[in-house]
Design goal:
- The protein is an alpha/beta fold and 270 residues long.
- Helix content is 54%, strand content 9%.
- The protein has helices at 3-33, 40-43, 60-63, 70-75, 95-105, 120-125, 129-146, 166-185, 192-200, 213-224, 230-236, 250-267; strands at 53-58, 84-89, 113-117, 150-154, 188-190.
- α1 packs across α10.
- Keywords: Signal.
- This is Lysophospholipase L1-like esterase.
- Residues 1-22 form the signal peptide.
Length: 270
């Protein structure tokens, strides 16, 4: 091989690597960095709008930039055209993180209704269940004290689709805390976990929890660079409702959209 041929090969390899890195960087930005549509920073804090506001508060499953966007689907439903939906989900948030920003990201929006879906990162980080319960109670109490909003607490989806794993047995204690908090505070409980468990129970060979950042970035690249749907991404890994053992496929997100819509239809009645 001549020196000129070798140079052409090296240049070609470098260009391919640059293209791959660029594509991965784009996927990473779209999935992990960018804000969701109609985040509190752009939707709240100014003069109240004409439409009643629904705030959807939580972490990455609510933000919906990595995985199915159930808040966006809710916003697009014609029966809720008169409402403004604010996406107060932030990737990686725990219950303590949401508590720290509840004034700016929830109360500042002057909501008529609030959904709260937070806790998967508490489970993964090992937050003691009693501390999680205290954080959740404080979030609800602060919203109740400063607004007249209807509030719903959503139970946490499984982590991985094998329900007989240590992490899902641990997660059950956090879901018990959610249900107890809703009952004690007199707010509504939305059974997301129960709906997803019912669906997963019909399928064999369910994948155990094996989340990693590489798996999440691969899922994002398949979607944003290769154009695969979130359902296609889930199926490529042998999954039904989750793309990477945490975040939602389109089908998984549709369960939350339907459950939230059913709750809002009742909660927002005059």
């Amino acid at each position: 091989m001549s020196i000129f041929t070798r140079k052409r090969v090296v240049v070609g390899v470098c260009l391919l690597l640059a293209a791959a890195l660029g594509a991965t960087g784009t996927a990473g930005y779209l999935a992990f960095v960018r804000s969701p549509d109609n985040a509190p920073a752009e939707a709240c804090g100014g003069t109240p709008g004409a439409r009643p506001v629904v705030v959807n508060a939580g972490a990455s499953m609510t933000q919906g930039t990595l995985g199915g966007d159930w808040v966006g689907a809710l916003r697009d439903r014609p029966e809720f055209a008169e409402y403004e939906f604010v996406n107060a989900g932030i990737n990686g948030d725990t219950s303590a993180d949401l508590l720290a920003r509840v004034d700016t990201d929830v109360m500042a929006c002057r909501p008529a209704a609030v959904t709260i879906l937070v806790g998967s990162n508490d489970v993964r980080n090992g937050t003691p269940p009693d501390q999680y319960r205290d954080n959740l109670t404080a979030i609800v109490d602060r919203i109740k004290a400063r607004t007249t909003a209807r509030i719903s607490l959503m139970s946490l989806p499984p982590l991985g689709e094998d329900l007989n794993t240590d992490i899902n047995r641990t997660l059950s204690g956090y879901n018990a805390a959610i249900k107890e908090t809703a009952a004690r505070a007199g707010v509504d409980y939305v059974p997301v976990h129960e709906r997803m468990v019912d669906i997963l129970a019909r399928h064999d060979n369910r994948r155990p929890y094996d989340f990693s950042f590489v798996l999440a970035l691969t899922a994002a690249t398949r979607h944003y660079v290769l154009g695969q749907s979130w359902d296609d991404v889930a199926r490529s890994g042998g999954r039904e409702l989750l793309i990477d053992d945490i975040h939602l496929s389109d089908r998984g997100a549709a369960q939350l959209t339907e459950l939230a819509a059913n709750w809002l239809t009742t909660a927002l009645k005059p």
